[in-house]
Amino acid sequence: MRVGKGKIALLCLLGLIMIFASACNSGKKETSNEAKEDPIKIGVLASQTGALESYGKQTVRGFELGLDYATDGTREVDGRKIEFIVEDTETKPEVAVQKATKLLEEDGVDFLVGSSSSGDTLAVLPLAEEYEKIMVVEPAVADSITGSEFNPYIFRTARNSSQDAVAGAAAIADKGVKIATLAPDNSFGRDGVAAFTESAKKLGAEIVHEEYADPSATDFTSNVQKVVDSKPDYLFVIWAGANTPWTQIADMKVQEKGIKISTGAPDIAALGTMEPLVGMEGFTVYYHELPKNEINDWLVKEHKKRFDGEVPDLFTPGGMSAAIAIVEALKKTEGNTDSDTLIETMEGMSFDTPKGEMTFRKEDHQALQTLYAIKLEKKEGVPYPVPVLIRELAPEETAPPIRNK
């Protein structure tokens, strides 16, 4: 029987459609399998040079340790390997943007983590939203990160300035107490002072002077003199970096003038410059002897093992907490890195860290966490004043105001 040319053409067309459909279905399966086999990539932004180099080093060490702890050493979740790439922001916002763009476009990372500087971090936040990628902020503290500049892709394991402020105010503020502040003239310093002032005033204190210094300054004589002239009962200092004001404060005999000093106890290198402040009461984010839990015990032991006997420092547990948060979220999503799925998973998520349990507050994605009221004391065999625990400040006690409304 002869088949007409029209029927032949129709049969050929149907055949081509079936072949194309089969190829598409096959392609979809391969794409799905390939996605499952692709590594999960995390881009870590840190100050490996610049004024906050030590903070970047601590964060990166903690992050690597956190990946190993959370995955039992496999660096794998649900069959997918985890890789991380570290980029140096040089503690310069414009460089941070360049490096973040490179991580997102060239390396194709699924997450961003960082950075050491609030200025660097604020510059990068819009990229997380533009590329629709989760960014876990650590250790930058400016309130505006989870406040006025917040976007839904931002989650912060670092404490913020308001949490520091609540802890700092609790240590010294009371009705009728006169307080002056000294801080760097940048977003970290100004946000910190604003938050401290709010907390201190609620407790009845009076802020008699706010002094802001060049963040790169090495001589703070004129700044300290202005504080002395304001005749406060306390000087509350907010500072970050190796160029601390403690030498000028000691040289100018501020305490002998009846002005008590209070601050957040810094990293170990900076503690070494605080000999004149032995006896000071303040707060700290972390000191390796303070948290009493299994994760911190593991951190201290493993850190000493890997890094020639060195103990974890101020921001090491923050880096570890950021890694744990990412891994725990990925476990819940079974390795799915879709940002909408991750946001839904991470909002309200609680996870264990070296500082105890943290919880990402749903409203602004700020991790609520423990801080520590401390007193600086001399300890035999230790070449710097040691933060000794007065009491733990529970997450609900230091919960900051929600500022992203």
UniProtKB/TrEMBL annotation:
Q: Which residues form a coiled coil?
A: none
| Family in the record | Belongs to the leucine-binding protein family.
| Taxonomic superkingdom | Bacteria
Q: Which InterPro entries match?
A: BCAA_transport (IPR051010), Leu-bd (IPR028081), Peripla_BP_I (IPR028082)
* Domain Leucine-binding protein, chain residue ranges per copy: 39-378
Query: Which stretch is the leader sequence?
Result: 1-23
Keywords of the record, alphabetical order, are:
Signal
Please give the organism: Niallia oryzisoli
Identification of the protein by name: Substrate-binding domain-containing protein
Question: What PANTHER family does the annotation carry?
Answer: LEUCINE-SPECIFIC-BINDING PROTEIN, PERIPLASMIC BINDING PROTEIN OF ABC TRANSPORTER FOR NATURAL AMINO ACIDS
> Is Ribosomal protein among the key words of this record?
no
